[in-house]
Fold this sequence. Notes:
The chain has 114 residues and is mostly beta strands. The protein has one domain. Helices cover 0% and strands 60% of the residues. It has a 7-stranded antiparallel beta sheet, with no helix packed on it. The two termini are 19 Å apart.
Amino acid sequence: MRFRSGDPNANAGSSHRSNASATSSVSATAALQAVYEVQAGDQSLRGLVQGGYDISTNAARLDGTVLGGRLTGEHMHVEFVALPCSQSNAGSQSNAAGGTCFQGKITVTPRAAS
């Protein structure tokens, strides 16, 4: 199951806590934990993911578990990049904090049937 930004039938939101730490003078990373809620009718789900954000590339990768809704208990993977809204596919987002938009995908991988 894959939800892409811009899908008219799915809306995803997140909240996260960030603990930034510099790993070297050249590269800095931030630890992220997020709750994603995808509202898509009978396909809706909610999941908890954690991972890292590479500040130098503006890219993040997070992994976790679907906690509620469809596919409860399955693996959830999230990847996104942070972009100025003018460079993303989000169009004009006057309410985006600092003019930053996040573009990426959420993938849920069901376990193989046993």
